[in-house]
Input
Amino acid sequence: MQYELYYWPSIPGRGEFVRLALVEAAAPFVDVARAGEGMSRMMRLLDGEKVERPPFAPPFLRAGTLLIGQTANILLFLGGRHRLAPANEAGRLWTHQLQLTLADLLVEAHDTHHPIAANLYYEDQKREARRRSAGFLDARLPKYLGYFERVLERNPQGDRHLVGARLTYADLSLFQTVAGLNYAFPRAMARAGKRHKRVMALHDRVADRPRIAAYLASERRLAFNEQGIFRHYPELDI
Amino acid sequence: MQYELYYWPSIPGRGEFVRLALVEAAAPFVDVARAGEGMSRMMRLLDGEKVERPPFAPPFLRAGTLLIGQTANILLFLGGRHRLAPANEAGRLWTHQLQLTLADLLVEAHDTHHPIAANLYYEDQKREARRRSAGFLDARLPKYLGYFERVLERNPQGDRHLVGARLTYADLSLFQTVAGLNYAFPRAMARAGKRHKRVMALHDRVADRPRIAAYLASERRLAFNEQGIFRHYPELDI
Output
């Protein structure tokens, strides 16, 4: 079976968390909205009047007859199908819990440049963005990074993975989150990296996995940019 | 088995979504932080150095040997245990997808009064809160309410439930979300109610369920207040 991934074609965004899981699982998928008439197919699933279980927003994944929305929910599904999460209930819930915490961080990272409204330009909320970013870099970023550092440190199976002794989708998502933060806030992350070496080492190890490395070097990997969730505005960095 | 729920004792917040599921399931639970030395027990699980799988923040639930964090994750677990979600994979994922969409709405509702930083006072971001609220009430609230209205309308088993023909935790959470929005934005919601009658009817039906009605009338139900996620600041309403 070939999966169909639906996501905005010009940004890595939330779609990238799903892509990384599909790539690592070597699961065949089409990135629908990035080719041909794909965008209109995506919009019909979002706005069409006959979709029985419509997604609220991209990304969503078609898997046979299933249409699954919400990034963490898609990963919950893929984790079970492709051994990207433990099979037992405790491990499955713990992996999902970490993913949901990364999802919270993602919203906060986005809101650093859009604290007032997602549908206004950055330029219309630049002053507020500076205040929000300062608080994010001062209080929230260290809290989140410290948390994941602690999770790695306390993993009884070793600090190479967030959960147990094998890679899970939470590791892939932590990689992508660190990559995005490195792009958006290079100065703050250079400093934070020194205090969160396990998190940074995990990022580097994921980037070196054969399938992920090949994918990152390919044209399929979309670059971070200033339309996405992680944006590099030097004035928002420390 | 008795569950242990850990959440801040003075606000309904995210803990309330878990409480409603436990109440509807008639599952015995202790609200740990609301009695005796409970707060320090909660803080030890959050900050203690020996917790192998620490939660990032409340709420979290102890269920036997499991310690489960993240509201939507807790509900995923309880949904399976207490028939508050379909047993089949498609229905289980769909229910969780709706819950995660409600979680997104919850963050946006919170950020109407705290657009700059959660650790600053409302008074220090009042001007920004007005701008953010205006955008929320103008664009985001109708989008979310319209979405859930559509989900109810398209449910092939009828518009009394979000999923299938039985109550799920997503219905309970939609009830709580509407209750919070009614408290925070009574004028905007009075207007929105006219266009989203199925959502409002679901809210009323959930409130009338015997166990929920008894709970809402009891002292266990915490009132919305200006320390919580949903706050009533008249200047932020339409």
Observations:
- The domain at 3-81 of chain A is CATH 3.40.30.10 (Glutaredoxin).
- The longest helix of chain A spans residues 126-154.
- Chain A has a mean pLDDT of 97.
